[in-house]
Automatic annotation (TrEMBL):
PANTHER family: UPF0153 PROTEIN YEIW (PTHR36931). It comes from Bisbaumannia pacifica. This is UPF0153 protein PA1578.1. InterPro entries: Puta_zinc/iron-chelating_dom, UPF0153_domain. Pfam families: CxxCxxCC.
Length: 89
């Protein structure tokens, strides 16, 4: 990565970590959290989190700070890698 793209260093419009992993904590609109592979309802059309900076955003979402090893070079890579990681844990 050559430059930070936003505060999280994440690729804007990716959203892979809001789809591939399961999230067990409640999310507004998804009180039971979300299963793996399901798109978070808070992920907007541009694949950005509607809760960014909102205290209702699950703390676990912070876990997905940009990590080149996981995020890969593009979204499809991230989707596959996160799914694999999820399957291992
Ligand atoms: S998978 Fe990585 S690049 Fe994609 S949204 Fe999540 S943190 Fe950002
Ligand atoms: S709350 Fe936001 S950061 Fe967390 S999974 Fe949903 S869209 Fe992604």
């Amino acid at each position: 990565m050559t430059e930070r793209q936003d505060e999280a260093g994440c690729r804007p419009g990716c959203g892979a970590c809001c789809i591939a992993p399961s999230i067990s904590s409640p999310i507004p609109g998804m009180p039971q959290g979300k299963p793996a592979g399901v798109r978070c309802v808070q992920l907007d059309e541009a694949n950005l989190c509607r809760l960014f900076g909102d205290p209702r955003r699950p703390a676990v979402c912070e876990r997905f700070a940009f990590d080149a090893a996981l995020c890969g070079e593009h979204r499809d890579q991230a989707l596959i890698r996160i799914r694999e990681l999820e399957a291992m844990t």
